[in-house]
Every structure is written in structure tokens, then in C-alpha cells.
Amino acid sequence: MLLKCAKLSQTNGATAAYGEACDGSTACTDTTTQECISDTCQCKTTYFRNHENTACEAKIAYDAACDTADSGQCTDANSECKDDGTRTTKCLCKTTHYDVSGTCTIRKNPDIACTATGQCVTNAECDVGGTDKCECNTGYTETPIDTPTMCSGVVKFASVSYMYVVPILLTMMSLLR
């Protein structure tokens, strides 16, 4: 015979406000938006504490309007509240990620397969129809060399012959003075 157990609430009416101590005998005041986490009343994972610290509010979906004063308000952990380019603040992917149907996915490193622009790391583009891989833009190099994770600007050093000619010219100029 299989017995089913149910957790019984034994709070005896005792409640704790947000940030206060709680346990099996004390419930959080607002059980809809808060729960006892590590013996403290905190916002449930689908809620965030507003910047006025007055309430736990429902997290905001990707591409929905948000308030930059609040942190941790977007449903996708890889998104943040920022300007969408039209002076409207929305939950959008962080610069290290790109949007795939409302989910923020980490950008692809150089030499990794891609299917569209905007999927690659900073200073790289997807060579659609060519290699179909992320390739560093002109003037940028894959770094580190073994397993590249980014495209870095390259400082071009003078050639060896140039490095010999300049000191000779400087010496000659100083002798002519």
C-alpha cells in the first residue's frame, strides 16, 4: 500500500514580513509573492523586489517594458532592462547574448557555425553563405589562438627592416646638426 504524505502548515498564524526570519512555524506575510528561503522571507523566483523595496513584483517578460531603476526584474537571467534604441526601456539580451525567439543565448565564438548576423561575439560577423561561421572583422584577430573566444584589435608592429632604418636615420640627422 502506497501512502501519500502532505506537508502540513504549522504556522499557528505567525507571519514574517519580507526580509524577516521564518521557519516551519512562521510563514511569510505575503505567500503569493514570497517564500521562506534560507530562513528569511524573500521574493519567489518568479518575482523581484522593486527599487522602492516595498513589494515583490512579477518578473517582466523578454521585450516587455521595464524600469532601469529595478534590478533582477527580467524573466531571462541573461537579459537586462535597457534602451531598445527608441528611448523605450525593455528587457533585452545582455551584450554577451543574442535573442532566439525570446530566449537570450550566448554569442558564438570565432570559427563556430552560425546562421545569421548578430549571433557572433563583438567584432565578429557571421559569414552567411560563405563559411557559415563567425569570422573576426577586418583589423581584428581571434584570441586566444588555440580556442578563440573573442576578436581583439591588433596592434601592427613595424617590420624588422623598418626597425633598423629608423635608428640609422636618427643617428645621421643628429650628426648633421
List keywords for this structure.
single chain; 177 residues; mainly beta; 2 domains; two-stranded parallel sheet; 10% helix; 28% strand; EGF-like domain-containing protein
What is shown here, in short?
The protein has 177 residues and is mainly beta.
Report on this structure.
By secondary structure, the chain is mainly β. The chain has 2 domains: 78 residues, no CATH class; 47 residues, no CATH class. The protein is built from 1 helix and 14 strands; from the N terminus they run E-E-E-E-E-E-E-E-E-E-E-E-E-E-H. The strands form 7 sheets. The protein has a two-stranded parallel sheet with strand order 1-2. A two-stranded antiparallel sheet has the order 3-4. A hairpin with a 2-residue loop joins strand 3 and strand 4. The protein is elongated.
How would the blueprint of this fold be written?
Layout: E1 15-16, E2 27-28, E3 34-37, E4 40-43, E5 47-49, E6 56-58, E7 79-83, E8 89-93, E9 97-100, E10 103-106, E11 124-126, E12 134-136, E13 140-143, E14 150-153, H1 160-176
Parallel strand pairs: 1-2
Antiparallel strand pairs: 3-4, 5-6, 7-8, 9-10, 11-12, 13-14
